[in-house]
């Protein structure tokens, strides 16, 4: 039944929402039907006014936003999320003393922005957020409710809408109704996404966004890279992964001068390793790259059983005693590719190896790609985008397969470059030399090195499959590692700086 519900939240805040039921927890609006799906009015019942604040970037708001009767909606019109603190500082009088109802795509940006607003002190206490953001709201109201247009999302879908098919956006050049960002058209100057319809895109490839026009910015155009995500920030759901920033999360909301965005690199460990161990082994590399790159480490999807080798002809009691598996618990080990006879065992019991260790066993691990690529696509959708992919040993073989299938993966998982360390080719027999057109850096042991895991010729062959004009090769004498000392670290940095 329609009617008004008056909610007394605390001693400082109460207001009435007609025909809607709203639940609060502390100072956070946690559900449910804020703004509702009717045209009833949202009426303040206290001396405090109500403002609705969109915490998203301008290109997101141009294709969809909330329209509510009798409630002022504030659109900061920012290029990227890190610009929001400056806007809040410059517009604090519009917020002071009001009940600030805030929304974004999934709620993560609101979490940080609301904390920043409250930190301003008296007059900024009443900040509330739409739990689950627009995504949860559209689940509650499939017809769109008070949300008009489409919701921009940071994955291959680009945007999702309600059952209401009305188009809110317009073409930057001809002003015709248009709301499709799938072409990834960007401003020539600031690289922000812009809406350009198919007809206008055929006539012109140079665009100036409305913010650059408004501010009459005289800046040099940046290099046009199709998948340049320097102005985007995704609403990331945390995964079981570790990074050089200790978590996969959006950049911190801070005010002050803008700094160069670091490259985000997805790192794939080797066979019978895990994300935590690989992070430890590359700590020196991560430290020397910390000014330009963030390394994100993930466990592979194939869990491996624990195995041990029985040593024959033990001569002493100590050797005999050590001829058993460790008694303490061990960290799980994973792989990207497995042998054809792999049974998917993942219990904690140690097993005796069927045969002596084979230094060329990596050539026999040819199965499991479908499971690994599905896992990486899901990871990319939730935690991406990533600028590059780095693989070590079997992880490099997996990364090479990702590059090989780049056309099939377009729109689902894309990288601007690949770094392949001690790599080798798997399931690439039909691949022609120089046919993989992905900028690549190949790092492996030289002929005189001590890499007893991956043959030098195997890594050289993998490098030959990548287009020669966009690949770099670094050979070193340090075995099965990624060197982090000069001159190799300088060569690695030189390669990465191309993509900043």
TrEMBL record:
Pfam family, one: FSH1
Domain Rhodanese: 46-146
InterPro entries: AB_hydrolase_fold, FSH-like_dom, Rhodanese-like_dom, Rhodanese-like_dom_sf, Rhodanese_C, TrhO
Protein name in the entry: Rhodanese-like domain-containing protein 6 isoform X2
Species classification: Eukaryota, Viridiplantae, Streptophyta, Embryophyta, Tracheophyta
Gene encoding the protein: LOC104242799
